[in-house]
Amino acid sequence: MGEQKKNNITLKVGGMSCASCVAHIEEALKDLKGVSRAQVNLAAQKTYVEYDPA
Fold it and tell me: What integer pLDDT is reported at residue 34 of this predicted model?
Protein backbone atom coordinates (compact mmCIF):
# COMPACT_ATOMS: atom_id res chain seq x y z
CA MET A 1 0.00 0.00 0.00
CA GLY A 2 1.11 3.55 -0.67
CA GLU A 3 1.99 6.14 1.87
CA GLN A 4 -0.90 8.37 2.95
CA LYS A 5 -0.59 11.95 1.79
CA LYS A 6 -1.09 14.49 4.53
CA ASN A 7 -1.75 18.16 4.08
CA ASN A 8 -0.97 20.89 6.55
CA ILE A 9 -2.26 24.35 7.17
CA THR A 10 -1.37 27.17 9.53
CA LEU A 11 -4.31 29.14 10.86
CA LYS A 12 -4.36 32.48 12.63
CA VAL A 13 -6.33 32.13 15.88
CA GLY A 14 -7.00 35.23 17.96
CA GLY A 15 -8.45 35.62 21.42
CA MET A 16 -6.31 33.01 23.16
CA SER A 17 -5.02 34.13 26.53
CA CYS A 18 -3.77 31.09 28.44
CA ALA A 19 -2.55 27.50 28.29
CA SER A 20 -6.10 26.29 28.88
CA CYS A 21 -7.17 27.94 25.61
CA VAL A 22 -4.35 26.13 23.82
CA ALA A 23 -5.36 22.77 25.28
CA HIS A 24 -9.03 23.22 24.37
CA ILE A 25 -8.24 24.17 20.77
CA GLU A 26 -5.78 21.30 20.31
CA GLU A 27 -8.22 18.76 21.76
CA ALA A 28 -11.10 20.02 19.61
CA LEU A 29 -9.02 19.86 16.43
CA LYS A 30 -7.64 16.39 17.20
CA ASP A 31 -11.22 15.14 17.61
CA LEU A 32 -11.97 16.04 13.99
CA LYS A 33 -11.90 13.19 11.49
CA GLY A 34 -8.66 13.15 9.50
CA VAL A 35 -6.66 15.44 11.80
CA SER A 36 -3.45 13.71 12.85
CA ARG A 37 -1.72 16.64 14.53
CA ALA A 38 -2.70 20.01 15.96
CA GLN A 39 -0.19 22.34 17.56
CA VAL A 40 -1.13 25.76 18.92
CA ASN A 41 1.37 28.56 19.47
CA LEU A 42 -0.09 30.96 22.04
CA ALA A 43 2.53 33.70 21.58
CA ALA A 44 2.17 33.74 17.78
CA GLN A 45 -1.63 33.26 17.94
CA LYS A 46 -1.32 30.53 15.28
CA THR A 47 -2.33 26.90 14.96
CA TYR A 48 -0.61 24.27 12.83
CA VAL A 49 -2.83 21.41 11.66
CA GLU A 50 -1.76 18.25 9.83
CA TYR A 51 -4.59 16.27 8.26
CA ASP A 52 -5.53 13.60 5.74
CA PRO A 53 -7.76 15.22 3.10
CA ALA A 54 -9.36 11.91 2.09
Answer: 96
